[in-house]
Amino acid sequence: MARARGAPAALIGLAAIAMALGGAGCGGDEGVAAGATVRVYVGANLCAEAQQALAGDGGEVGDVKLEAVCLRPAGRPGSLDLATVGANARRATQDSSAIAYLESKSPANRFAETIVEEAGIAFVLASSGEDAVRRVSQAVEEAGSGSLRDEVRKTLESE
Predict the structure, then answer these.
(1) Are 127 and 113 contacting, i.e. CB atoms less than 8 angstroms apart?
(2) How far is the C-alpha of 142 from the C-alpha of 136, rounded, in Å?
């Protein structure tokens, strides 16, 4: 019987830990700690420019550091690998430090955008990685004290 009594207490303890960890990322209600690194997931064809744009100032934007994560190419010219599109989008959604997903115009966007936006991550279409990073950086600078992911998404959606 001691086990039956201890089990609910253990479950309550595990639930409390899970809730605390779940709210610790960029998607939580609190702001991001000064010096934290947040990630921007970038389509393969924009990534070199995005990384170069971030390298100029070390990726520092306000109190946080932006890091570009390059995504795998979603096919060869003229073909589209939907499995890769989905895997790229899910990779961003599984990262609690992800604040934006940057892509150039492509038929794959309608698939990736649905997945990314469901997680509350900003989906940004851009013609250059430099322009996309500039827009995200501006949104980070304008962010209030709430969830950085939510603040960036709201700012970029209102453009």
Answers:
(1) no
(2) 10
Domain of residue 76, residue span: 2-157
Cα Dmax for the chain: 65
Q: What percent of the chain is predicted at pLDDT more than 70?
A: 80
What is the DSSP secondary structure assignment for residue 143, as one 8-state letter? -
- What gap in Å lies between CA 13 and CA 151, rounded to an integer? 31
Number of DSSP helices (H) and strands (E) in the chain, helices first:
6, 5
Identity at 159, one-letter amino acid code: E
Q: Are the beta carbons of 74 and 106 closer than 8 angstroms? A: yes
Contacts of 154 (CB under 8 A, 6+ apart): none
User: How many domains does the chain contain in total?
Assistant: 1
* Other Cβ atoms within 10 Å of 55 Cβ, number: 10
Q: Is the pTM of this model over 0.70?
A: yes
Residue 42: give its domain's CATH number. 3.40.50.2300
Nearest CA to 66 out of 146, 8, 135, 12 is that of 135
Rounded to whole angstroms, the Cα distance separating 159 from 156 reads 5
Mean pLDDT over the full length of the chain: 81
